[in-house]
Each structure stands twice: as C-alpha cells, then as structure tokens.
Write a structure and sequence with these properties.
This protein is mainly α and 110 residues long. It is built from three helices and no strands. It has one domain: Helix Hairpins (Orthogonal Bundle).
C-alpha cells in the first residue's frame, strides 16, 4: 500500500469534493426559492388557494428539472464523501500496520 499515493489522491480531490458539496447545498436552498417563484407564477395564472399554487409549483417542469439536478449533485457529493472515507480507512490500516511492525521490531531488541 502506497500511502503517499493515497494522500495525493485525497489532495487532488479536495476542490472537486468542495464543489460537489457546494452544488448540493446551493440546489437545496435554491429549491425553496424556485418553489416560491413558481407559487407566485401560479397566483398570477389564477390559482387562488395556497394549495393550488403549491401543486402548480411542485408539478412544474422547472421544479422537476431542479429536483433532477439536486439528485445528481447529491450523488456526486456522496461519491466524494465515500472516496474520502475509504482513503481515511486505508490510511488508518496503514498506520496500524506500521505500528505493529515497529512493535514487532522493538521486541527483537529485548
């Protein structure tokens, strides 16, 4: 196991991982704004009750496209989180292995 290559992979993924997280958070927040905009549009189109406007917003193709984008952003973010978790675990295994080797070599000196 080459721990330096793990660190390099980890470091090279930081910008992409940060962007994936930022995209997910942005889309989650924008979803609220989009719903409000579409509810206003529904009101302008004659939907009188809040329930009618909300139904209009949720059924709107723009809102559904936003949900698809949010799904992709969430998936991308999760992939980076798991890659980082796997790298952390592999480094932990490496550290344990190295500590065991040091202990074993130390026992030979006694």
């Amino acid at each position: 196991m080459n721990v330096e290559s793990l660190f390099q992979e980890w470091r090279s993924s930081i910008d992409e991982a940060a962007k994936a997280k930022a995209d997910e958070v942005y889309l989650r927040e924008f979803r609220k704004s989009k719903k409000a905009m579409l509810m206003q549009e529904g009101k302008d189109k004659g939907h009188k009750t809040g329930q009618e406007r909300e139904s209009y917003a949720y059924a709107n193709h723009e809102y559904l496209e936003l949900l698809d984008a949010l799904r992709v952003a969430t998936e991308t973010n999760a992939k980076f989180q798991w890659r980082m978790k796997i790298a952390e675990e592999r480094i932990g295994i490496y550290r344990t292995h190295e500590a065991s080797k040091r202990k074993e070599f130390g026992n030979y000196g006694n």
